[in-house]
Amino acid sequence: MDVILVLWVCLSAARSVVGFGMDPDLQLDIITELDLVNTTVGVTQVSGLHNTSKAFLFQDVEREIHAAPHVTEKLIQLFRNKSEFTFLATVQQKPSTSGVVLSVRELEHSYFELESSGLRDEIRYHYRFNGKSRTEAFPYRMADGQWHKIALSISASHLLLHVDCNRIYERVIDPPETNLPPGSNLWLGQRNQKHGLLKGVVQDVKVIFMPNGYITQCPNLNRTCPTCSDFLSLVQGIMDLQELLAKMTAKLNYAETRLSQLENCHCEKTCQVNGLIYRDQDSWVDDDHCRNCTCKSGAVECRRMSCPPLNCSPDSLPVHIGGQCCKACRPKCIYGGKVLAEGHRILTKSCRECRGGVLVKVTEVCPPLNCSAEDHILPEDQCCSVCRGHNFCAEGPKCGENSECKNWNTKATCECKSGYISIQGDSAYCEDIDECAAKMHYCHANTVCVNLPGSYRCDCIPGYIRVDDFSCTEHDECGSAQHTCDDNAICTNTVRGHSCTCKPGYVGNGTICRAFCEEGCRYGGTCVAPNKCLCPSGFTGSHCEQDIDECTEGIIECHNHSRCVNLPGWYHCECRSGFHDNGTYSLSGESCIDIDECALRTHTCWNDSACINLAGGFDCLCPSGPSCSGDCPHEGGLKRNGQVWTLKEDRCSVLLQGWKDILPTDCL
């Protein structure tokens, strides 16, 4: 399980650093794909919110704006098995009208449809789940004649709605069906041939099939948090790893069963040494290192050869014969008071060698020497001279693996390496000295002597720290801050170490302790101390359970052309009636500018009256004369000259001489 958690953290880190550049193959520009430039019925190209893309006016006439079959098929393939997509559009909808911005449907079933109702002042999202229709409604007035940027993002069961780069709504919904059936069609500005006709201007209509697609429309929005689909992918990854772990466990159990069965079988294990194969329990002598070796269950075990003690007679000496590991007694020779062992030579008038206790004349041709006569030296027990500095070790004697040859002026000898002792008297073959058993070490108290080949080591007993190579001292791990306890844990010294216990109000294993809040922290709050939450911006309370109303508490002061609208954990300044955003969408509402209803011809003045633009509204001024009745049309009705009524914003209108004047109620 720890392996799975480590992999989960790695996956989280990997996903958290994925770039947010939009792949053009994972987005569909609806206006471009539908080729609206060449559409003549019901659609006219006009100026949009900006000049970087084309905008089109959808007129109040019968029209059929839908995609060609190849475009619909492209959309179907993009939607297939996708759990994450975003719909983007920039819309200026005629006031108090209703219509569908985009619809993907098959016969009577809407798989994706975004509708704006000016009658109920709400945005609706229609989709299907498990073969049934679903609708999510969001109270918001979009049909007000102003430009609005809309971004509807779906991530599995998580829905985000941004309007004018403000997060207006966030919900958990049933995950929509994205595998569209054959015969589906894509409609722009309407539901089908005769229903849901949108009246207004549309620009930048796109569908993005990537996480956080709203970044395309609002690049400055936060984009560091993983999406719901990212989380579900990680959960699926963990489930896959758990399944893989279960399969591996089953295979290991099967392998253990087979191994236990094989252990009951007898298979002779052999050893191969220098090209020779020895059967189990075979023994042989390793002459190169003077060891007795045995093959045991396929492994070679060697021990140094133990030579028997020699009790040579007075007329003999122990010598190595024929490269054998152990010495043997051989008769000695005496010449001029000098004792010679078997094989040694002496130079008289001729060269003589001791053989069987007798000096035998031998013929030896000495090689020429490449040195001056004063540098000639005669080695011990030899007849031919050599140059001074001659390497006797290159000619012998034969030293064992734990001894080394050393040159002298006239001969070479074997010497045991440091930490070894001779086992044959001439140091040709040496064995390790167990300094610990022989009490030849310098380890002090609170240490343990550990024998090593040719040496030893002093290890500290648990709970002590090293002072030098030979001594250790008791260690206060807690006091010296050399412990593994968390800052919010209590360190306690023990006999041979220490223990860690989390402080009250913290939970964990002592090495890692985290604060504990009994009722938890809501809306993304973090528990930073016992029962103390650090709330994200926009929330307050002991458990971050209360939304801060930035509007009523006066934390935010919107520009007088806008009004403050409180949102969960946030707010935004919405342009007042008669104003619209200039496209910069400033947080304080400074980007709200007056709508010139007269110039845009969105006023309701009769033909025989003159439109006068005002800040946030307009006036209709009737010319004097008998033809002007002074009456004014309003919201589909007719108001008589001088009639007073109350508006939704708790203001009143006074009709004076054929033009409409908007005054606060306290003016009357």
From TrEMBL:
Question: What's the gene?
Answer: NELL1
Q: Which residues form the EGF-like domain?
A: 432-473, 474-514, 515-545, 547-582, 594-629
Pfam family for this entry, one: EGF_CA
Q: Does the keyword ATP-binding apply?
A: no
Its GO CC terms are: cytoplasm; extracellular space; nuclear envelope
* Matches recorded under Gene3D superfamilies: 2.60.120.200, 6.20.200.20, Laminin
Q: Where is the signal peptide?
A: 1-19
Q: Where in the cell is it found?
A: Cytoplasm; Nucleus envelope; Secreted
Sum up the protein's function in the record's words. Plays a role in the control of cell growth and differentiation. Promotes osteoblast cell differentiation and terminal mineralization.
The record lists the organism as Phascolarctos cinereus
Describe the location of the VWFC domain by residue ranges: 269-330
**Which cysteines bridge via disulfide bonds?**
517-527, 535-544
Keyword field: Calcium, Cytoplasm, Differentiation, Disulfide bond, EGF-like domain, Glycoprotein, Kinase, Nucleus, Repeat, Secreted, Signal, Transferase
Q: What is this protein called?
A: Protein kinase C-binding protein NELL1
Q: Which GO terms describe its biological process?
A: cell differentiation; positive regulation of ossification; regulation of osteoblast differentiation
* Lineage, top ranks: Eukaryota, Metazoa, Chordata, Craniata, Vertebrata
Q: Which CDD domains match?
A: EGF_CA, LamG
Q: What is its main location?
A: cytoplasm
